[in-house]
Write a structure and sequence with these properties.
It is a single chain. This protein has two domains: 3-89; 108-346, 2-Layer Sandwich (BirA Bifunctional Protein, domain 2), CATH 3.30.930. The protein is an alpha+beta fold. Helix 1 (3-17) runs antiparallel to helix 2, helix 1 runs parallel beside helix 4 and helix 2 runs antiparallel to helix 4. The longest helix is centred in the N-terminal third of the chain and has 40 residues, at 50-89. The protein contains eleven helices and ten strands. The two termini are 81 Å apart. 41% of the residues lie in helices and 20% in strands. Bound molecules: phenylalanine.
Length: 347
Amino acid sequence: MNDLEALVQGAQADFAAAPNPAELENAKARYLGKSGRVTELLKGLGALTPDEKKRRGAEINQAKTRIETALQAAREALAEAELAAQLHAEALDVTLPGRGRGVAGLHPVSRTIARIEAIFASMGFDVAEGPEIETDWMNFTALNSPENHPARSMQDTFYVDVNDAQGKPLNLRTHTSPMQVRYARNHAARHAGVEPMPEIRVIAPGRTYRVDSDATHSPMFHQCEGLWIGENISFKDLKFVFSEFVRQFFETDDFDVRFRPSFFPFTEPSAEIDIAFRSGPLAGKWLEVAGSGQVHPNVVRNFGIDPERYIGFAFGMGPDRLAMLRYGVNDLRLFFENDLRFLSQFK
Ligand code: PHE
């Protein structure tokens, strides 16, 4: 084998062995670069006689052409390999089933509130919403809570660093009861001079806040207020309405309701409403589901309504608690941790 044949075969082997374009270009430089082997050979031609130069020059150029052909082939092979690798990496398995769009679902507490609203709406109740940041007057004073009532303490209530027009700090409402006042005052103003005043029948669901946190208490929780005021509304109406609500909400007749004497500043008399299922996993256990009572005359007066003429009842219940009972959930915090593995079970 002459020197040129060896050179060509060496270049072919080097090019074929280059694992990537960068290495291939390095190999090319060793043969065809400015000081590459082929270039050096061509430079050496100058020392030859014209005849030798012609023959040798033609041989070197032939070798050079073969080396360039090998280079081109190696470039194409690398480009092809790269394309193949890319196609492989980006391969789509068109036989996989489509992922589709996730189906959203209502939060179990929202679902419960929607259910409460639908049931009370079917009994002629309006649904109202109001602010979660309340004035001292709406949350406490109008509801007949004395200045020194423990519910007003820093330990029980979140206060906001902003004062209301009376110079009292705003608070995160501790219950939905201020909605009794807001709704009734609007109602009274809207129907001023109308005799008799049309009845007030409303529920007001929403978020409420207290400094409290354990398995059955969350600093943010939900309440749903109820208010029914008219000329002749009594505890028997409350008992009927609430029993009817429980019957529809839990889809059973198999329960008892009891009113247990209690105290709230804004109702007199006051009662806790307990229910007990007669069958099922909770059978025989009295479960407290709402506070209630006949609205105190002072509060009716703060509604802007004559307490000598109009009377009625209010109740406040916990949709979170109702959701726990309905779905068999034993830790309130699960509702507010936003773990989709929990929440998506209610879709
Ligand atoms: N606001 C009371 C509470 O948060 C519940 C209640 C509402 C009681 C209406 C009586 C009447 O505990």
